Amino acid sequence: MIGISLCMIVKNEEKTLERCLSSVQKAVDQMIIVDTGSTDRTKQIARKFTRCVFDFEWVDDFAAARNFAFSKAEMDYILWLDADDVFKEEDLEKLLELKKTLSSDIDSVTMKYNLAFDEHGNVTSSLRRNRLVKRSSNFRWVGSVHEYLEVAGRIIDSDIAVTHCGDDRDRDRNLNIYMKRQANGEAFSPRDVYYFANELKDHRLFELAAVYYRKFLEEGKGWVEDNIAACGKLADCYLELGDTGKALAYTLKSFEYGAPRPEFCCRMGYHFLQTGDYSAAVYWYKQAIENPAPANSWGMQNLNCSTWLPHLQLCVCYDRLGMHQIAYHHNEAARHYRPDHPSVIQNKVYLENKLGIKAVAEPAKETANP
Question: Where is the Glycosyltransferase 2-like domain (predicted)?
């Protein structure tokens, strides 16, 4: 059975750290907590779980802090988390089983990272990350902001999930680091350009964000998943700026990088819904349902766009096309995922009044595209 060192960097995490460490302590053999300047009870909480609490002088470089934490690990494998992450009970059990069975020739194990949830606890946004890595492989973190773990060798994808439980951190922190680096004349990597644009967008600086997203795409050196995401974020920026033509253009540009993803099919469907071309909207919303993103995709996935959302919009489209039984069928499909959504409830009442309760006991099935 392998041994696992948990390595974390923290700062002012007194609200979340105990929850995080409690959720994983059964599965790890060593906890390394590196503090980057806390002024609250973070270090006292950490010491309830481990003696291995270290100070690291903050130098505006997340990779440097994480690499320092990794350098303190002593077990066979290193697991990393943020303080607002947890292992749910079922995922902890899976991790314990993996610990018993993992072959020593595995260099990295990826895990799902569940980021957002609906009111029923269903995952609505997730991605995949290298989460458990072999210590002797000496993998390093790269990037002062939005750092990533550079791995190679034999990598396996697990069905274990880490759950993100909110983020109360300083929302200006990352943007300030990028601005300081830019002022110092530092060259940005393509990844830096993309994440700088993200920070600008998050701060509602849409015109400037669009400049950097375009720069990122025009350089042509980005990871394909970031290219696709940048197209969507550019479309969002232009919608905020009132330029629907450019928003459509960058939605279409995403198709240059691979098969249409559900998120972009929904964007296309919404475009045609807004222009009143309901048949075209139906086509795109169906594509969102019928062509979900690959389960092992490393990119960010908005699971709403392959589940309840396109069904809800198909309900609207078919209603406007006068095909009310099919509209009801899609609303029922949306209700399967989101039974308490106000629009779903409203549609149900409206369509049952339109059709009569008995008329919809067995919802009609589609036989052809309109």
Answer: 5-106
